[in-house]
Structures are given as C-alpha cells and as structure tokens.
C-alpha cells in the first residue's frame, strides 16, 4: 500500500497522543475492551475510516500534525477479528482535519498543514498504481 503525495497549491495541541481502538464484545451496552493501535503519535489530528485495500473491511488512516519534523501518515489495515497491520505510507508533511475524496473511482485523501514548513500548501494523497 503506497500513497503518493501531491502538493496542490496555497491556502492560507502539542504533545504525544495515542490512538485507541475499541473492540465490541457481545452486548454493545456493556463495557468495551480497548485495544491500543498506536501510542506514540504526535497530534494525530486527522482520522479517516474507509476501505483502502478493497477487501470490504474498513481501514483506518491517521495523519500527524506538523509539530514534529517528520509527521507520519499511518494506515492501519484491517485484517479482521480486531487485528490491524500498521503501515507508514508517507512522512514529512502533516495534516489537520484531512478528508477522504474520490478521484476516478479511487479513494484519495486531501489535507492541509496546520503549521510548519508546508503551511499554505494543500496536499493530495493518491494511491499509487501497482505495476505488474
Ligand atoms: Ca480494507
């Protein structure tokens, strides 16, 4: 799974954060059990749920903000049964409140930095075409 970041053009809480997953066991009205998918993220202010892998299971994409030198875009690939694989799919440009869009029937993510060296840019992350 590879994303390609494209810089579009211009537009005009510090601290480590964790990203937690909740797994439902039986009755959703009872207490839920928490699974920590990541615990060392820096201001992960974008969270997008969509089936990026095309297997019917919703995956999770989280993007850190630019309060670190190399903010990461992380894809948690849903393998079913509450199991997720963690993949860093881009780093170097963070985002704040990124959104999912469709381009030619393909999922993509668009976002803009909150601060930092890329402030004023808009980034479009598109899935790279696999060449076989
Ligand atoms: Ca999936």
Give the N-to-C terminal Cα separation. 14 Å
- Per DSSP, what share of the residues sits in E-state strands of 2 or more residues? over 45%
Helix share bin: under 10%
- Rounded to an integer in angstroms, the radius of gyration calculated over CA atoms is 16 Å
Average pLDDT confidence is 86
Uncertain ranges: 9-17
Largest β sheet strand count, sense and barrel closure: 4 strands, antiparallel
Overall geometry = globular
Query: Which cofactor or ligand species appear?
Result: calcium ion
Topology (elements, then pairings):
Elements: E1 3-10, E2 16-23, E3 33-42, E4 46-50, E5 59-63, E6 72-80, E7 83-91, E8 99-103, E9 106-111, E10 121-127
Antiparallel strand pairs: 1-10, 2-3, 4-5, 5-6, 6-7, 8-9, 9-10
